[in-house]
Amino acid sequence: MLSFNYTRQAIDDTDDDDRREAKAHASDPKLLRALHKASLFFCFLGAMGSSFLFILAGRQTPRVLFGPFVLWLIPPFVVLLVAHRSTSDLSTKARFILYGVTLIVSVTSLAIYTYQVNWPRQSTPAFYWVLVPPASVLFMMITLVVSAIVLHWKAK
After folding, report:
1. Among 8, 14, 101, 152, whose CB has the most other CB atoms within 10 angstroms?
2. What digits encode the pLDDT tens for the residues 98-114?
3. Does residue 74 contact residue 51 with C-beta atoms inside 8 Å?
4. Smallest Cα–Cα separation from 121: which of 43, 57, 61?
């Protein structure tokens, strides 16, 4: 009987948490909406800016490599846009984290590429262009997985 009462209490607590989450989704704070719009803007800016900066930096690059390199630069931003499309299932805290990660990846990528365009490396000029996209995806995965674990752990 004790375990039944404990289980019943856990179910009631879960229902209360679900109701609070639904209420939080229904009344998104203005800050969350503003952060969502800003992160989408910077995601598009990051994708377009990265491509533009690569074209600027690649004046001596063989034309055959332009297409593959642009396709190499865009996936981190596509992953972020896909994640943005599925935010309706996420808690408010998880959305804040996703939007923050989007801003960090976009601004950092643009900063690194801008640095590369203005002060290019002489020995290995393609180093940043090859390294930043997988590093961005790795950063996104680690951040989102760790935050999901922490949010799940705090919920218990």
Report:
1. 101
2. 999 999 999 999 999 99
3. yes
4. 57
